[in-house]
Amino acid sequence: MSDRKDDEWSTLINSKILEILSQETSNDEPSPLASITSPGDPRFPLAIDHTLLKQDATPTQIDSLCDEAIKYGFKSCCVNGIYVKQVAERLNAAKGSPTIACCVVGFPLGAGSAESKAYEAQQAIKDGALEIDTVIPLGLLLSKPPQYAQIFKHLQTIVSASAPVPTKVIIETGLIPTPELKITACILAAEAGAAFVKTSTGFAAGGGATKEDVQLMYRTVRYKKTVKVKASGGVRSFEACRDMFLAGAERIGTSSGVNLVKNLGMSAVGY
Hints:
Keywords: Cytoplasm, Lyase, Schiff base
CATH superfamily: Aldolase class I
InterPro entries: Aldolase_TIM, DeoC, DeoC/FbaB/LacD_aldolase, DeoC_typeI
Number of helices: 10
Radius of gyration: 18 Å
Pfam family, one: DeoC
EC number: 4.1.2.4
Enzyme class: lyase
Number of domains: 1
């Protein structure tokens, strides 16, 4: 599969596009979290990646992020690489906490080399990261024609370097102009071994997660059985989370985790 040429990828992807866009959405299988109806559901905190990725985030703020995640039982603390070791040590000190360290690599642009992202991921894992979120090289996807084989090899390099730690691939839906290209990005990520496809970095001007995009992504990757969908970017209320779960998401990336479990609305920008 890794030696497929662009024309072979094009045949596979175009076939998948026709299949997915011709399906009736009413026939979609519900996602495992579609039955969450209140923030009090014990599965809800474990679906949240509690996130602080601002460039001006301080060590003190990172400690607070960890303490909140421990208190509410979030799935992860998602941070930039400089803070992974700090996060892992603080989480490990909280005996019995389910929260893990998650690190973004090649973030937020995704325009670095595959080798540099792979090294960044391996360093994050050495520092204690148990999940990796990386960004697709979007320019190669928007190329005419898309550089299928190069994108696949790029993502596979990062996924392989991170294994067995799972990798989430951010496709930046707000900057992808058509459903066909969103499907293409998800297929390439899934075939490269991604554990999740993820909507957004939260940094792009094109916008964050929408239930329509999440549903399309869910319908695209479910053929792989093990690939899941993460919704991130602008998800700031329990009602929005509920929409994402109904659309197929199994993880939410947000800086508003505390307000979500308390069912408080948020108007903050970004994640």
